[in-house]
Specification:
mainly alpha; 102 residues
């Protein structure tokens, strides 16, 4: 059975991936809304496409290293891996988007 517990030294990469995925997802939604009202903006379409491909790569990397990020967009080993990860309402699932002040 695969375990999803990672050594402490790997946690910064996991958090970095989550931050990058979150930021790109937000940007993709923002671009999507912009393109709904500006469908002819070639640069925005190109940026949107690049961001979608990048976030796909990051999700695949996250899935490979740490397990399923989204149940409906991931494959799973046996046993079902989705239940192995912390749930969104658990503190260890969440991360700080801003650095803590010393």
């Amino acid at each position: 059975m695969m375990t999803r517990e990672q050594p402490c030294k790997e946690q910064p990469r996991k958090e970095q991936l989550l931050k990058e995925i979150t930021a790109l997802d937000f940007y993709i939604i923002d671009l999507h809304l912009f393109l709904d009202t500006h469908p002819g903006e070639t640069e925005a379409i190109e940026t949107y496409n690049r961001c979608v491909m990048k976030v796909k790569e990051l999700r695949e990397e996250y899935n490979r290293l740490y397990g399923m990020l989204l149940a409906n967009m991931s494959t799973s080993c046996e046993p079902w891996q989705w239940i192995e990860n912390p749930w969104p309402w658990q503190k260890k699932f969440n991360f700080e988007l801003t650095e803590e002040k010393s």
